[in-house]
Amino acid sequence: MFKHTGIVRRLDDLGRVVIPKEIRRKFRIQEGDPLEIGEGEDTILLRKYSVLELSDETTQKILGSFSEITQLPVLLCNTTHVLHGVRLHKNIRNMELTMELSDCLLDELTPCSGMKIVYENEITVDEIERIIINGNVEGALIIPASGIELTESDRNCLKLCAGALAAVVQ
């Protein structure tokens, strides 16, 4: 679906177009973010690219195995949206992450525990493990708060699964 913004930009001699700051902010596009270029009959489409969206059966098996072993819910997200969820009472797949959590994911030194995951409900982060590919944070595995005390084994299993996902999609 194409929404007219009234913004018109010229192509420079190298084929570059500047994306206005308000659009970059709305879609959380930062310098260095990969963009996928698509084409329609008479349109050119730019889409924020996430390698984690290419997840397949292997990704589902990793998430399912984690949840089966730990008996805990788990979410896979990129830096802006929830991509998959296992053992959740509410379906939050494809929902947008809160800006606070999205920013926290990109800052590896900031703890994200207790942050609200999506705007649409009150589910919060209990534990998080970032998925790092080629030195960049591409997403995270999140254990939502459920009132169950996490063990060190649960945390280690989450780290292992995040590493496995990074290796699979790399």
Automatic annotation (TrEMBL):
Lyase: present as a keyword of the record? no
* SMART domains per record: SpoVT_AbrB
Q: Where in this chain does the record put each SpoVT-AbrB domain?
A: 6-51
**Protein origin, superkingdom:** Bacteria
> Which Pfam family is an annotated match for this chain, by its short name?
MazE_antitoxin
GO MF terms, alphabetically ordered = DNA binding
Recorded protein name is AbrB/MazE/SpoVT family DNA-binding domain-containing protein
Query: Taxonomic classification, please?
Result: Bacteria, Bacillati, Bacillota, Clostridia, Eubacteriales
